[in-house]
Amino acid sequence: MDYDLFEPGDIQLQNGATLRDAKLAYKTYGELNADKSNAIVYPTWYSGQHYDNEWLIGEGMALDPSRYFIVIPNMFGNGLSSSPSNTPPPHDGPRFPNVTMYDNVRVQHRLITERFGIERLELVTGWSMGAGQTYQWALSYPETVRRILPFCGSAKTSIHNIVFLEGVKAALTADAGWNNGWYREQPGVGLRAMARVYAGWGFCQQFYREKIYEREPLGYGSLEDFLVGFWEGLFVKRDANNLLAMLWTWQNADIGKTPGFGGVEEALAAIRAPAIVMPAQQDLYFPPEDNEWEVAHMANAELRTIPGSWGHFAGGGLNPVDTKFIDNALKELLARGV
Amino acid sequence: MDYDLFEPGDIQLQNGATLRDAKLAYKTYGELNADKSNAIVYPTWYSGQHYDNEWLIGEGMALDPSRYFIVIPNMFGNGLSSSPSNTPPPHDGPRFPNVTMYDNVRVQHRLITERFGIERLELVTGWSMGAGQTYQWALSYPETVRRILPFCGSAKTSIHNIVFLEGVKAALTADAGWNNGWYREQPGVGLRAMARVYAGWGFCQQFYREKIYEREPLGYGSLEDFLVGFWEGLFVKRDANNLLAMLWTWQNADIGKTPGFGGVEEALAAIRAPAIVMPAQQDLYFPPEDNEWEVAHMANAELRTIPGSWGHFAGGGLNPVDTKFIDNALKELLARGV
Question: Which CATH fold would you assign to the domain B4-157+254-335?
């Protein structure tokens, strides 16, 4: 096991249930300095685990472990932190409780304060659902978070995004092997169907028009090779109930439901940390228009769009040009005095 | 039965199989005049039947039955023309042969020439896959077709569109009840899953952002009401093998494969009929960019985009504003001397 567990006990969840004997899996990179002033939190995305975030960390990059202490907390439901697949009965499988972004971030905050004694974070950043957690951090812990850079995500899941996820869910659960979550083997047909549904959304029209999947660094031999090798490969290694648990978290993401706030506008207005909000051009489920609306409601935020043809996966660490774009913005934001 | 059948016998198909005892269901509106100079062909779309095309026909509209003789041929696979669901063994169900756009249009041409003795068409027009058949008409029968107005469709199905359809297909066929097409009852779970996948594609981000589904003329009570009432309602009344047959036709649509042509560029360049090519703004699977590319390769074509927030379904006859926009363009095109 190359990661650690934080075990805060039972967690009262926002929606009324209890996450018993919660386990937050995390990994750290670099060293926390003496005055604990060099910490960064970088949450994970839908189906991703901390391994899948590491492309943005490295010597000479903004998230440089020789300079910063970077904490990647694994989202609940992702198979490493408490999830349907690793929770003992009776809360296992489809009985795993509904966990919100707010719940995730609350436990992450306990991790950094109780385990590490950190009171300030230089930065919170993340891709996709990781971006959603980033907004939540800035809202829930304004005294802690100095800067945020959410990329390819949103503060509240849009209706169209909810519909996209309905399609993903319907494809996965159309497999009778799913059996309402009481499967003995993974519902492989459903996982592969879900992957094929996702394929049209994760990358945009222009990505396919240019056959970028056939070029380096992807280099698949054909469209079918890409659908199987990349997309089915992404989901068949995951647990169906875990994917559905995270999907619930995603569909129900809304910082406006944070206790004390009366909706997303009010919540956005309460975010004071300097922010670069970074959508990707042609992202089909987190379109730049939604972030533009957000930024107009935020006090100290700039919209900066990743240009190009990769759509949502511009933020996935696969395209060096996009990675450079994100890294440059992170460097710039970290250099700002706040 | 409110429609007629044209029965041209056995049809040798482009892909090598034979459609035996073919039946082309069609309906006509208005009267063919004495010199047979007032005919219009208006093919159907994916899952649609001639009933579903009638919104664009009416007194005072461009497609005015008091003036024109309008023929709506039903696409093969749509349940009225020869389809998996109505073909006798051994060519029934999943053994129904693969039919191309080219095949469809060839039989439609026999209908109008052999049954009606029509040598010229004032116009061919259609939505979505109906647009695909429209391009094919102009290419296959340049001496017959005087004008075309394909809306929300393409001459060759784009790779991204193929991927979108892979998701639709995967969701439908993930239902074990589908049984490789040898079902005794419709695979209802799969049909509903397919509908939910489709929901995010058929209308665009802005449509959902504005909750247009809650307003007149749609007037659904909630998102879920719309997903069930509109989307599931659209597909649960159809036959799964029929939907898969038409999906094959769609995925493989390419006028560049017409005998005698060496690809889509060459085929587009051969279309000489005056054309208004009409995408819809924010159409997610027939994006305007693809039509822009087409028009640049066509001799006598204008790109005219339907503005607004309805995406692909701008061409579906549900929104009076969009219908007016299409109707106006049809009137203008029909008034042009050619």
Answer: Rossmann fold (3.40.50)
